[in-house]
């Protein structure tokens, strides 16, 4: 069986040979795009043909890019190998420090040439004219045909695009099939199933969902569950101040969380657990499910005693939910953006755009997939059976994507400011930790909205 | 003493310090004060909003919790850290074989990376699998088990313990330096007069350490108000900011939630409180000294 | 007889001291022994079975940490920054502290105010300074330069040094200096050849603390250093942590690698603090 990868939108068939050598791979990227607007290609060819050395900085959110972002590292290596005149300086620092540093750089007008950044912060920078507009690049390379709407339009500021997701953010619950089998349980698809599973697991001393509240951002799958209650129908009104976050629909979500908490679904030490603790809890068989995302495929495959027991699911649907319950959390990850300053140097800009073109091509996607990363583009090639069987966790992610559920517009915390996002995490963990009622939790978020509105 | 009354010397001696200090501490502090009066979020040009942030602060439940937690840590440190480090210094001051090794070992907690401190003490205090609760289980004292960290009550006390552990060697080293400045002759004459250990301590050591006490108390006060990494690595404010101290809450609002303006108002408030504590303490100390006709 | 008893008494006291200090030190070291234990375990054991004893001695974490850290480069950069920082800051804060305690002021209030002014820095959390210091660094065109680190390090140490140096200077009598002045020594000679030797234990204490501060300082370093080639030792540990992954084994082993030189350094200089005592020709 051949698996189609990331075929949420079936792309125009582009024959892509499975390339092994990196050198030839980028050659294809150059030729492969020649069907596009000639103007764009011409500039690219001109610069890549000339051997004048060009250097640019790419600043990431990890200190050790080679180890911690192997996909990006591999893409840069492949690109530099194909373009000996280009040097990409990969720099970075740990995530929180990185975001702070980008803000400082924005104030001092010293942004790196290309950088990873938070979505909210990217939009602010764009509104200050600090970023290069990618509209032409997207049109020239016809990216709208190979990227989903929610990917390509992630950094939309007044109808113009200022950044492209560095990966697809695919979030959900990992589960341990062996544990479900052991207690004759099905992997839950509805909330009621989940409640039943929790009752059985709790009786047997097993945690249903591993979470770590010390890293407040680690609530990806639960945030997606909030979208089963009409989140995107309401949120614009809420952010505009016309509606309250404290409403009956959202209350159902928080009440469900409270019910799960009371049933013992979450670890007893969830308050002091980190995301990493939750991950180890899942890996060691102490927890049946784990709130996380596709990025853990590799780690789980390497550290799980029985990798074939790993599965991935979008989560559960709710009988009392609002709107479409068949939705999936496959959306844009934090974007890569080009600073306006870098764009002032035409030679540098041309090289960066050529690099982007490679990054958002099937060749780039192939490198990502080889590193078990979900690419932001819809990869049109095929993947060998052997790859699938070697990587059961990643294959399970792809299975979920191929269910063809409706993609959620964006991750729930990304609709507004960072303060809003953090209030949303706090509201969810507040209920899980047992320090807030549903009302208090919703009011926390409403307070952040009010604050942003200057109330 | 009339050997420095030349302006040129005065400027040459104080100038460089004042210059660097103003450039890197005072100017940034004024920048922080300015931002605390705005709605700055990190990137977009800020709007001036007056003292709104300061008003908001006193209605912010989490901020008030962080003040309370900071106060608990401070109290714990004065009550535990100060006496413990004085005793340690007094013992280490008797030069016995290997005393240097003991000094170094007791100083060790001060230089372990904060992330490791958070990790280790997390294992010790963790309510589910921590060392203390496991030990209580083994001893059959289940009733004594507590939610040491991550609950609503005990976390700041535990932070006080860890902070004391971290700084005992540090504060003791300063006490030691102070003890070294007391001339041996004083102790000798005391012994000749037949004073016992306590009398020597009460009438020689403590008065001679007056300045060292002042230094250490100021360091403890200012240190407690600046505790950051310890809490950040131990609980990161969990559950839901209830174990936050002022600096971590400031950090969270400023850098994690990007409410730079509001965060700076917390920082400015924290600076003012710390400075007031320090100056009031110094004022009382100086007045006491003046009354006693002692050091000026 | 009396002498013998006294001797015995002294011996007993010494033994008690030993026992007491050993027990206390041991309790202080329990968490650290725990660190050593954890450093021999792999990542999942560190989280899942932190309390268990490992079956065999496993040094993989140390080997990995050495590979990842590139300690030679990190140590070199740190030592360069540290040396420049220490030389400048010890001299200028020593001089300013002497000026604060030994100058006769026309307005005594000025002295007290200058002192309080210089102490304000103690109350400022470093996170308040990061954004502005970054801007100042750019304005002075120091970015990417070692001086961009040195100047903030000096600045953030000024308050601490002033507190300690003025505190101890105030405690010292001034007869010796006055005698030197009467002998016609210049101000600088008085400072460096008379005062400095007297307060040597204090200077060394301040020096030791400053070195350890610079060695471990993280927030400024991560803000001001971008290039890997310029990274300092305190940045090393962040190489083991990313958004979704953490290498606890690497962090623990790495932190032991980083703290070992410090503890040796501290033990070494402790000796000089003791020596300083005998040299102190101070009379009450």
Key descriptive features of the protein:
heterotrimer; B: 296 residues; mainly alpha; MetI-like fold; 0% strand; globular; C: 284 residues; 2 domains; 12 helices; flat; disordered C terminus
How would you describe what is shown here?
The complex is a heterotrimer of chains A (455), B (296) and C (284). Chain A is an alpha/beta fold. Chain A folds into 2 domains: 20-165 and 334-375, Periplasmic binding protein-like II (D-Maltodextrin-Binding Protein, domain 2); 169-330 and 406-452, D-Maltodextrin-Binding Protein, domain 2 (3-Layer(aba) Sandwich), CATH 3.40.190. Chain A has 22 helices and 16 strands. In chain A, the strands form 5 sheets. Chain A has a 5-stranded mixed β-sheet with strand order 3-2-4-14-7, with helices on both faces. In chain A, strands 8, 9, 10, 11 and 13 form a 5-stranded mixed β-sheet that branches. A two-stranded antiparallel ribbon of chain A has the order 1-15. In chain A, strand 5 and strand 6 (160-161) form a beta hairpin. Chain B is globular, with a radius of gyration of 23 Å. With 284 residues, chain C is mostly helical. Chain C has 2 domains: 2-38; 60-279, Orthogonal Bundle (MetI-like fold). Chain C is built from 12 helices and no strands. Chain C is flat and about 70 Å long. Chains in contact: A-B, A-C, B-C. At the B-C interface, helix 1, helix 3, helix 4, helix 5 and helix 7 of B face helix 1, helix 4, helix 5, helix 6 and helix 7 of C.
Shape of chain A: globular
The parts of chain A where pLDDT drops under 50 for at least 5 residues are: 1-48
Main sheet of chain A: which strands, in order across? Answer: 3-2-4-14-7
- How is the main sheet of chain B built? none
Radius of gyration of chain A: 22 Å
Oligomer: heterotrimer
What name does CATH use for the topology of the largest domain in chain A? D-Maltodextrin-Binding Protein, domain 2
Helix amount of chain B: over 70%
**CATH C-level category of the largest domain in chain A:** Alpha Beta
Q: Give the H and E element order of chain B.
A: HHHHHHHHHHHHH
Overall average pLDDT of chain B: 87
Strand content of chain B: under 5%
N/C terminus separation of chain B: 14 Å
CATH superfamily of the largest domain in chain A: Periplasmic binding protein-like II
Q: Overall mean pLDDT score of chain A?
A: 87
Total of helices of chain B:
13
The proportion of strand residues of chain A reads 5-15%
Biggest chain contact: B-C, 99 and 98 residues
Structural class of chain B: mainly alpha
């Amino acid at each position: 069986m051949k698996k189609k990868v990331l075929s949420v939108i079936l792309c125009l068939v582009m024959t892509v040979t499975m390339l092994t050598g990196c050198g030839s791979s980028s050659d294809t990227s150059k030729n492969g795009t020649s069907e596009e607007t000639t103007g764009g290609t011409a500039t690219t060819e001109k610069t890549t043909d000339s051997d004048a050395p060009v250097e640019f900085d790419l600043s990431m959110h990890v200190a050790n890019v080679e180890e911690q972002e192997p996909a990006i590292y591999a893409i840069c290596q492949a690109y530099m190998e194909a373009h000996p005149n280009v040097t990409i300086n990969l720099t970075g620092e740990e995530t929180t420090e990185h975001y702070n540093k980008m803000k400082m750089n924005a104030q001092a007008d010293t942004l790196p040439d290309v950088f990873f950044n938070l979505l909210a912060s990217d939009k602010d920078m764009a509104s200050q004219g600090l970023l290069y507009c990618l509209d032409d690049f997207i049109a020239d390379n016809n990216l709208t045909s190979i990227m989903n709407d929610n990917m390509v339009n992630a950094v939309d500021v007044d109808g113009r695009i200022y950044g492209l997701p560095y990966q697809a953010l695919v979030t959900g619950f990992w589960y341990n099939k062996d544990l479900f089998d052991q207690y004759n349980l099905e992997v839950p698809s509805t909330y009621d199933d989940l409640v039943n599973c929790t009752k059985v697991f709790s009786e047997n001393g097993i945690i249903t969902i591993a979470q770590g509240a010390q890293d407040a951002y680690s609530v990806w799958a639960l945030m997606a569950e909030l979208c089963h209650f009409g989140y995107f129908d309401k949120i614009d009104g809420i952010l505009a101040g016309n509606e309250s976050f404290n409403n009956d629909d959202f209350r159902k979500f928080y009440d469900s969380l409270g019910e799960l908490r009371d049933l013992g679904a979450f670890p007893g030490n969830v308050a002091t657990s980190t995301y990493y603790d939750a991950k180890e809890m899942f890996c060691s068989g102490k927890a049946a499910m784990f709130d996380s995302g596709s990025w853990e495929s590799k780690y789980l495959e390497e550290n799980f005693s029985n990798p074939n027991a790993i599965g991935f699911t979008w989560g559960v649907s709710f009988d009392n939910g609002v709107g479409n319950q068949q939705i999936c959390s496959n959306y844009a990850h934090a974007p890569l953006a080009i600073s306006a300053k870098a764009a002032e140097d035409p030679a540098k800009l041309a090289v960066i755009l050529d690099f982007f073109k490679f990054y958002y091509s099937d060749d780039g996607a192939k490198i990502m997939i080889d590193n078990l990363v979900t690419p932001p583009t819809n990869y049109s090639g095929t993947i060998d059976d052997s790859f699938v069987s070697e990587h059961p966790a990643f294959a399970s992610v792809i299975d979920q994507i191929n269910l063809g559920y409706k993609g959620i517009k964006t991750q729930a915390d990304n609709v507004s400011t960072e303060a809003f996002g953090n209030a949303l995490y706090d509201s969810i963990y507040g209920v899980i930790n047992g320090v807030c009622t549903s009302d208090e939790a919703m009011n926390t978020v409403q307070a952040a909205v009010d604050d942003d509105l200057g109330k | 003493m009339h050997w420095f009354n030349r302006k040129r010397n005065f400027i040459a001696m104080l100038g460089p310090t004042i210059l660097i200090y103003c450039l890197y501490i005072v100017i940034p502090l004024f920048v922080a004060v300015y931002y605390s009066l705005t709605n700055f979020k990190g990137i977009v040009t800020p709007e001036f909003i007056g003292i709104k942030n300061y008003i908001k602060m006193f209605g912010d439940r989490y901020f008030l919790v962080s003040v309370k937690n900071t106060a608990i840590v401070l109290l714990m440190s004065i009550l535990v850290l100060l006496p413990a480090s004085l005793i340690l210094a007094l013992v280490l001051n008797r030069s016995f074989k290997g005393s240097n090794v003991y000094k170094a070992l007791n100083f060790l907690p001060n230089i372990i990376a904060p992330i490791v401190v958070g990790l280790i003490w997390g294992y010790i205090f963790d309510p589910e699998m921590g060392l203390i609760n496991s030990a209580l289980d083994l001893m059959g004292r289940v009733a004594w088990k507590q939610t040491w960290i991550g609950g609503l009550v005990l976390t700041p006390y535990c932070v006080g313990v860890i902070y004391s552990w971290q700084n005992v060697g540090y504060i003791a080293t300063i006490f030691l330096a102070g003890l070294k400045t007391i001339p041996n002759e004083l102790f000798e004459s005391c012994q000749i007069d037949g004073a016992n250990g306590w009398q020597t301590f009460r009438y020689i050591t403590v008065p001679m350490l007056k300045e060292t006490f002042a230094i250490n108390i100021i360091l403890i006060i200012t240190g407690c108000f600046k505790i950051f990494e310890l809490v950040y690595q131990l609980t990161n404010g969990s559950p839901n900011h209830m174990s936050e101290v002022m600096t971590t809450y400031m950090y969270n609002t400023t850098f994690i939630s990007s409410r730079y303006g509001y965060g700076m108002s917390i920082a400015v408030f924290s600076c003012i409180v710390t400075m007031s504590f320090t100056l009031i303490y110094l004022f009382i100390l100086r007045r006491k000294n003046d009354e006693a006709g002692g050091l000026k | 007889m009396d002498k013998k008893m006294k001797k015995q008494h002294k011996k007993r006291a010494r033994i008690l001291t030993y026992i007491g200090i050993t027990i206390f030190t041991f309790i202080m070291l329990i968490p650290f022994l725990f660190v050593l234990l954890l450093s021999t375990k792999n990542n999942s054991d560190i989280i899942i079975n932190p309390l268990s004893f490992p079956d065999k001695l496993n040094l993989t974490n140390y080997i990995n940490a050495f590979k990842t850290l590139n300690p030679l480069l990190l140590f070199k950069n740190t030592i360069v920054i540290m040396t420049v920082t220490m030389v400048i800051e010890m001299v200028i804060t020593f001089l300013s502290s002497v000026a604060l305690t030994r100058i006769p002021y026309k307005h005594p209030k000025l002295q007290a105010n200058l002192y309080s002014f210089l102490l304000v820095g103690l109350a400022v959390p470093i996170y308040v300074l990061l954004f502005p210091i970054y801007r100042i660094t750019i304005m002075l065109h120091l970015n990417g330069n070692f001086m961009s680190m040195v100047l903030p390090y000096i600045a953030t140490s000024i308050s601490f040094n002033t507190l300690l140096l003025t505190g101890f200077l105030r405690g010292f009598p001034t007869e010796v200096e006055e005698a030197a002045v009467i002998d016609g020594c210049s101000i600088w000679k008085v400072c460096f050849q008379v005062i400095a030797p007297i307060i040597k234990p204090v200077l060394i204490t301040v020096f030791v603390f400053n070195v350890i501060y610079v060695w471990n300082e993280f927030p400024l370093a991560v803000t001001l250093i971008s290039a890997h080639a310029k990274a300092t030792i305190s940045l090393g540990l962040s190489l083991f942590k990313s958004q979704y992954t953490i290498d606890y084994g690497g962090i623990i082993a790495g932190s032991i690698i980083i703290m070992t030189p410090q503890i040796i350094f501290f033990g070494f200089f402790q000796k000089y603090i003791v020596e300083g005592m005998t040299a102190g020709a101070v009379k009450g």
